[in-house]
Amino acid sequence: MDVYLPIANLSVNGLIIVGLGALTGVLSGMFGVGGGFLTTPLMIFYGIPPTVAAASAASQVTGASVSGAFAHSRRGGVDYQIGGVMVAGGIVGTGIGAVLFNILAQLGQIDTVINILYVLLLGSIGALMARESIQTLRSERSGIPLPARKRRHHPLVAHLPMRWRFYRSGLYISPLAPLLLGVLTGILTMLMGIGGGFVLVPAMLYILGMSANVVVGTSLFQILFVTMATTMMHALTTKSVDIVLASLLLIGSVTGAQIGAQFAQKLSPVKLRLLLAVIVILVALRMSVGLGFRPENIYTVAPL
């Protein structure tokens, strides 16, 4: 079933794109993270230009985040105060990312930068996740528990001025910390098409020191609005959002997420985390190898 993608300017097999969306949906349902960080690399592997893949993945993440954000909101798992601060930072970061995106596109380096960012980000996060999972598994087998982590924010956060009290998260910190975290997430979302959840959730836990019961919901709340802003920014500035591509991905991801949620109930959280780490590292390795090969077709996406 061939489908023409007007922005990418190529024909693809629509069933394969739906399948890619379903695969990332399964992973999202299994691991509780957005599929954007895997959607973009998989589309690049299939032959979609990196700029179109990143911009279209952001719109798919928006749709995938809606149901999750509402579900966590109903059970009181969203800190709207700190989430609002991060959304404000994310929108600012989206603007900064748009400027960087256009500069790199004019220099003809945006595709390379997207690939390098994915290799660095996925490789480092995958290695940290694998290390933590292996340590936990060894601890379970030996019967010697790992030392308990104290839930507290990073020392750098403690020195920031103008402290606010975030009651739902149980924090008394400067709003500059979540604001800057939101800015960083906005920039990454604009450049890479990721939701940012796999970066945002660990940062909220270990840097801001947020309570675990509101981290995922607040992350989805922030991702929802920042990916909306990213999609609008791409549509207005880079004009790289392919609505046909995003729609096919969304059809697959909605179905895949339900299947992934069922798998998640049958595996332990530690083994799931280790499996996710292995997948992330393999994708990073594949992208690093791809950086060293000359593509068969040389292409670029530039404004007319």
Automatic annotation (TrEMBL):
Keywords: Cell membrane, Membrane, Transmembrane, Transmembrane helix
Organism, scientific name: Novosphingobium kalidii
Domain of life of the source: Bacteria
Protein name listed in UniProt: Probable membrane transporter protein
Mode of membrane association: Multi-pass membrane protein
Predominant location category: membrane
Transmembrane segments: 12-38, 82-107, 113-130, 171-199, 205-231, 243-264, 270-289
Cell location: Cell membrane; Membrane
UniProt record similarity statement: Belongs to the 4-toluene sulfonate uptake permease (TSUP) (TC 2.A.102) family.
UniProt keyword annotation of Transmembrane helix present: yes
InterPro entries, alphabetized: TM_pro_TauE-like, TSUP/Inactive_protease-like
